Amino acid sequence: MLSIKHEAIITLICIFSTFQIKLWCLIFFSFLHYLESNLILPVWILGRQHHLNTDKSKLLLDISARLWFTYRRKFSPIGGTGPSSDAGWGCMLRCGQMMLAQALICRHLGRDWQWEKHKKQPEEYHRILRCFLDRKDCCYSIHQMAQMGVGEGKSIGEWFGPNTVAQVLKKLALFDEWNSLAVYVSMDNTVVIEDIKKMCWCPAQSSSVAHSSAHLHRSALGPNKNTAGLCPGWKPLLLIIPLRLGINHINPVYIDAFKECFKMPQSLGALGGKPNNAYYFIGFLGNELIYLDPHTTQSFVDSEENGTVDDKSFHCQQAPHRMKIMNLDPSVALGFFCKEECDFDNWCSLVQKEILKQQSLRMFELVQKHPPHWPPFIPPTKPEVTTTGAELIESTDKLFELEEEFEILSV
Q: Which domain of life is it from (predicted)?
């Protein structure tokens, strides 16, 4: 027999659940109504164009295929004694995870890979998911990112900006042999072709270094798995461009160039949002940006004994959110993925044609040679370490003490 108090609690839970369902339905049908009222305009999602009057279902499938990382609770405390939830402070970290996850999807499964609920997915997909589980021994977990942020001047539990997240991903990628990414974060609004090619054309590593690095994330990648980054050649490129597109508000002169970036086949979207409120922008329709929102708190999910991950909470199956582009905070970071050198060459051509065609107030610069007044460019390399978790992070701090900070230019 339930007490009156318990019955009241159950009633409140039912009311709250009903309210949530109604809210999601309102968002979903509002999105469909918005699409129907803009049938003529194409929707661009990460380099793919969708026409609303012919392939609305394909559009929604394309969006739901993106990995969706949100706040989580009940994971092991960060650093042993830190927070066990990132609610309220980890939204930009989650957005960084989403952008990186999209790069890994493109790297291993291809841009046109689609996710379907209850459909068996390839092993590479589950290995990608395991990289982001909320455990200290997973290479891109909230634990690793938050602790690596300490080296960027951010305390655990403090909100990150787009550039800080980019720097953290660049450091962590050095220890990820399976995905074997070269992460380039531009400086002073300038992308240097010479530096990127120097970094991506890597020589073969010694077996001892490769073995120690592969050992670091064995639990994230699964048992007895070969790594994919031991051969010399072009390393797949994750290019992140932190930008300031205005002072207090976005300058309208940048809007067209900003939207053009989502049309490029190499697009990974953008990190940004509003002050202390981060979103992962994946496309646009007209003058509205389409984004995935990390501000939902879900329970920690771990991998199964066979290495698979229950992934239903890692895909947003509701209609995506929208934001007027003029409401965007001017501090953003663009992301691009170039699996092969020809992809990067094509990206450079598109930038020259579509982004740099405006002679004044360019969104960023693309130059062939390393600027002579800059410090020499030395591609980052990982140290020979045999530790994991927080010890791994402590061992890499000294490598980046002399790194140049990203400078915000006046607009």
A: Eukaryota
* Amino acid in the structure at residue 177: E
User: Which residue type sits at 328?
Assistant: L
Q: Which tokens belong to 78? A: 């960060």
Give CA separation, 377 vs 90, 137, 192, in Å: 31, 31, 10
For 34-75, write each residue's pLDDT tens digit. Answer: 555 556 789 999 999 998 887 888 999 999 999 999 999 999
Q: Tell me the residue type at 403.
A: E
List the beta strands (DSSP E) in 132-179. Answer: none
Helix axes 91-108, 162-173, angle to 10 degrees: 50
Residue 161 has pLDDT above 80, yes or no: yes
> Distance from first CA to last CA of the chain, Å, rounded?
68
Catalytic residues: 91, 293, 295
The verdict on pTM exceeding 0.85 is no
In whole angstroms, what is the distance from residue 358 CA to residue 352 CA?
10
Answer whether 182's CB lies under 8 Å from 200's CB: yes
